[in-house]
C-alpha cells in the first residue's frame, strides 16, 4: 500500500490541466517506474497524485506539416523504438530508447517521465539535446515551447512552472534531416542499469567535410549538456581521423564530471573522449561519410 493522500485520474488533457491548475502540488505520474519506487521508499509519502494513464493521444508519434516530428510525452520507450517513423527518420532515438532499462520497464516508462525526472542519466536526454529537440509545455490557460537546454535546472530539477504539463517532444526537421547519428550508453552491465556515461552524436557530411555536428552528453555534468566548442571546431573541417580525435578532446572541456561509486572523475573524462570519438566516427559513417586516416 502506497502512502498517498489523493489520486486523480482525468480522462482528457483539458481535465488534467484543470486539476493541476487547482492543485499545483500534485505529483504527476505517467508510467510510474520512478514515482512508485520513490513512494515505496517513502520520499513522496503523503503526496497527492495526478495520473496521466487515461489521456489517450499523448502517446502518439507523428510528423507535422513542417516536417517536425512530434513524440507524445506519454509514449512508452517500447513504442518509440518500434515506431516506423522514428526508425526511418531518427534512428538514434531508437538506440537511446532500447538502451533504457529492460523490456518490462520500457513497456511502461514514458519519454516524458524520463525527461521530467531531471535525471542526468536519462537515456533520452543526451540524444534529444543532440537533435535540438524542443519541449511543448501546457497549462490550463497557456502553452510554451522551449529548447531542451532551458528545461534542466540542476540534478533532479526541471523548469516546470506551477500547473504545467509536458505534452510533447518536438524534433525539428533541421535537427534530423540528412543526419547520421549514434548513441552510446556506457554502463556496468548491458541492461537494467543506469548509465555511467551517455554520448549522442549527430552529423551531416557534405563533400567529405562536416556541414553540421552536434554532441550531447549525459552524466558528464550536473545536467545533460552539449559540446558547443567541439561542434564549432568541426564545422567545415575535412572528416579525418585527426579531426575526429580533436573533436573528442574538445568534447571533454564542458564536462563537469564527478567521482561517484560508479566511476571516478578521471575515468569519466577518459570515457567522454573515447566514446565521443567512437560516436562521431559512427555518425559520420551512417551519414554517408568516411573518416579518412
From TrEMBL:
Q: Quote the Pfam families the UniProt record gives.
A: CO_deh_flav_C, FAD_binding_5
What InterPro entries is this protein classified in?
Answer: CO_DH_flav_C (IPR005107), CO_DH_flav_C_dom_sf (IPR036683), Diverse_Substr_Oxidored (IPR051312), FAD-bd_PCMH (IPR016166), FAD-bd_PCMH-like_sf (IPR036318), FAD-bd_PCMH_sub1 (IPR016167), FAD-bd_PCMH_sub2 (IPR016169), Mopterin_DH_FAD-bd (IPR002346)
Top-rank taxon, per record: Bacteria
Record's protein name: Xanthine dehydrogenase FAD-binding subunit XdhB
One GO term describing the cellular component: xanthine dehydrogenase complex
Which range is the signal sequence, renumbered to this chain?
none
GO MF term list: FAD binding; xanthine dehydrogenase activity
The entry's keywords: FAD, Flavoprotein, Oxidoreductase
Domain named FAD-binding PCMH-type is located at 1-176
Amino acid at each position: 500500500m502506497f502512502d498517498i493522500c489523493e489520486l486523480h485520474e482525468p480522462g482528457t488533457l483539458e481535465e488534467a490541466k484543470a486539476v493541476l491548475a487547482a492543485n499545483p502540488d500534485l505529483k504527476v505520474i505517467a508510467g510510474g517506474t520512478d514515482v512508485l519506487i520513490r513512494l515505496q521508499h517513502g520520499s513522496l509519502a503523503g503526496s497527492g497524485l495526478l495520473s496521466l494513464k487515461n489521456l489517450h493521444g499523448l502517446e502518439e508519434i507523428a510528423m507535422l506539416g513542417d516536417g517536425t516530428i512530434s513524440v507524445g510525452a506519454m509514449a512508452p520507450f517500447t513504442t518509440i523504438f518500434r515506431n516506423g517513423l522514428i526508425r526511418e527518420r531518427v534512428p538514434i532515438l531508437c538506440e537511446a530508447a532500447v538502451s533504457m532499462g529492460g523490456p518490462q520497464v520500457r513497456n511502461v516508462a514514458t519519454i516524458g517521465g524520463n525527461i521530467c525526472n531531471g535525471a542526468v542519466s536519462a537515456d533520452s536526454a543526451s540524444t534529444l539535446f543532440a537533435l535540438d529537440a524542443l519541449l511543448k509545455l501546457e497549462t490550463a490557460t497557456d502553452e510554451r515551447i522551449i529548447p531542451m537546454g532551458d528545461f534542466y535546472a540542476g540534478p533532479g530539477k526541471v523548469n516546470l512552472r506551477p500547473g504545467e504539463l509536458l505534452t510533447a517532444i518536438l524534433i525539428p526537421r533541421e535537427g534530423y534531416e540528412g543526419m547520421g547519428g549514434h548513441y552510446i550508453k556506457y554502463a556496468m552491465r548491458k541492461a537494467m542499469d543506469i548509465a555511467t556515461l551517455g554520448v549522442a552524436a549527430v552529423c551531416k557530411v557534405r563533400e567529405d567535410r562536416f556541414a553540421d555536428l552536434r554532441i550531447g552528453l549525459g552524466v558528464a555534468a550536473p545536467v545533460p549538456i552539449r559540446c558547443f566548442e567541439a561542434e564549432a571546431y568541426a564545422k567545415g573541417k575535412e572528416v579525418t581521423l585527426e579531426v575526429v580525435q580533436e573533436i573528442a578532446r574538445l568534447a571533454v572541456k564542458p564536462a563537469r564530471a564527478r567521482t561517484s561509486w560508479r566511476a571516478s572523475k578521471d575515468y569519466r573524462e577518459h570515457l567522454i573522449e573515447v566514446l565521443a570519438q567512437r560516436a562521431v566516427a559512427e555518425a559520420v559513417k551512417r551519414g554517408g561519410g568516411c573518416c579518412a586516416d
